[in-house]
C-alpha cells in the first residue's frame, strides 16, 4: 500500500480512546480537497502530537495517507504522523465563512436524506460516513455509564499510564462517566426516530467547562440545542463503528450548524 499526499479539511475528532499500543488515539474526520469525499484518519495520538501538528476544526492539513491495513471501511486511512502539516483554517463562524464551509461540505455525495438511506448505502457499498439533516432534533440527553464498564475503563487507563514511556511524558487521561445522545427524526417515511450516541470530542470539552455548576447538564443541553433551533440549518455528521459485526450502528461524530440568513425585504 503506497502513501499518497492529501489535503484534508477537518470537521471533527472523537474523544480520545486509551490504547495499549498508542497510549491514546482519536478518530478524525474530514473531506479530501481533490475529491470532496469523506475520509477517516485513524489512529492519531492527538494530544501527543507536536504543537505545530495539532490541527483545529475546519482547518486544512496536508499529510501522507494510505489504505488502512486493519479497517476495510472505504473512507478509512492510516496517516503518517510525521508528515502532518497544518494549513489555513476556513473561518471562525462568520456568515461568509459559513458559506465557504457549506460549499465544501454540502455536496450531493455527502448528504443523505435519512439515516435509513445511509444504512442502505452502507449495505450496498460499505459507505460509513454521511451527513443527515434531521427533520426534527427532539432532544439532547445523557446517560451515566454502567459502573462495571466505567471501572473497566479506569483499570485499562491505569495500566496504560503506569507503563514507562522513554520517548514522551504520559498525560493524565480522564475516563468519561457519561455518554451523550441525540434523539431525532429524519425527513423520511421510513424513519421511526433515532437515539444515537455522540462521540465528538467538543461535547466532552463542553462538559468539562460546565460540570462544576449544579445545573451543568441543563446549561450544556441549552447551548447544544440552541445550535439545533430554527435559526440554524443543522446537519449531523454520522459515522459507523469499526467492528465488522456493528457496521449498521452509527454514531454522531459532529454537528454542522450554519446560521440561516434572513432574506432582506424589498418592500
Short description:
By secondary structure, the chain is α+β, with helices and mostly antiparallel strands. It has helices at 95-105, 115-125, 147-162, 201-210, 216-226, and strands spanning 4-13, 17-19, 23-32, 38-44, 59-67, 76-79, 85-89, 111-112, 129-132, 136-144, 178-185, 194-198, 235-240, 250-256.
Reconstruct the topology from this structure.
Elements: E1 4-13, E2 17-19, E3 23-32, E4 38-44, E5 59-67, E6 76-79, E7 85-89, H1 95-105, E8 111-112, H2 115-125, E9 129-132, E10 136-144, H3 147-162, E11 178-185, E12 194-198, H4 201-210, H5 216-226, E13 235-240, E14 250-256
Parallel strand pairs: 4-6, 8-9
Antiparallel strand pairs: 1-3, 1-5, 2-3, 3-4, 5-6, 5-7, 9-13, 10-11, 11-12, 13-14
Describe what this molecule looks like in 3D.
By secondary structure, the protein is an alpha+beta fold. The protein is built from five helices and 14 strands. The chain has a five-stranded mixed beta barrel. A four-stranded mixed beta sheet has the order 8-9-13-14. Strand 11 and strand 12 form a beta hairpin. The chain is globular and about 55 Å long. It starts with a strand and ends in an 11-residue tail after the last strand.
Amino acid at each position: 500500500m503506497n502513501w499518497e499526499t492529501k489535503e484534508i479539511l477537518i470537521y471533527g475528532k472523537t474523544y480520545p480512546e486509551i490504547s495499549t499500543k498508542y497510549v491514546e488515539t482519536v478518530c478524525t474526520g474530514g473531506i479530501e480537497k481533490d475529491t470532496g469525499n469523506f475520509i477517516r484518519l485513524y489512529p492519531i495520538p492527538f494530544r501527543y502530537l507536536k504543537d505545530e501538528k495539532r490541527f483545529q476544526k475546519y482547518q486544512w492539513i496536508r499529510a501522507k495517507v494510505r489504505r488502512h491495513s486493519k479497517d476495510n471501511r472505504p473512507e478509512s486511512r492510516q496517516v503518517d504522523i510525521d508528515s502532518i502539516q497544518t494549513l489555513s483554517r476556513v473561518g471562525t463562524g462568520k456568515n461568509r465563512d459559513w458559506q465557504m464551509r457549506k460549499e465544501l461540505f454540502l455536496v450531493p455525495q455527502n448528504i443523505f436524506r435519512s439515516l435509513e438511506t445511509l444504512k442502505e448505502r452502507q449495505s450496498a457499498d460499505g459507505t460509513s460516513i454521511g451527513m443527515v439533516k434531521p427533520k426534527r432534533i427532539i432532544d439532547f440527553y445523557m446517560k451515566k455509564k454502567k459502573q462495571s464498564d466505567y471501572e473497566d475503563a479506569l483499570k485499562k487507563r491505569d495500566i496504560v499510564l503506569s507503563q514507562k514511556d522513554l520517548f514522551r511524558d504520559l498525560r493524565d487521561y480522564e475516563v468519561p462517566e457519561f455518554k451523550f445522545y441525540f434523539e431525532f427524526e429524519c425527513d423520511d417515511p421510513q424513519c421511526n426516530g433515532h437515539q444515537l450516541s455522540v462521540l465528538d470530542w467538543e461535547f466532552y470539552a463542553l462538559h468539562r467547562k460546565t460540570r462544576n455548576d449544579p445545573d451543568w447538564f441543563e446549561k450544556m443541553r441549552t447551548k447544544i440545542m440552541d445550535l439545533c433551533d430554527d435559526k440554524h440549518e443543522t446537519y449531523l455528521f454520522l459515522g459507523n463503528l469499526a467492528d465488522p459485526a456493528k457496521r449498521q450502528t452509527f454514531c454522531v461524530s459532529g454537528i454542522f450548524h450554519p446560521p440561516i440568513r434572513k432574506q432582506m425585504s424589498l418592500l
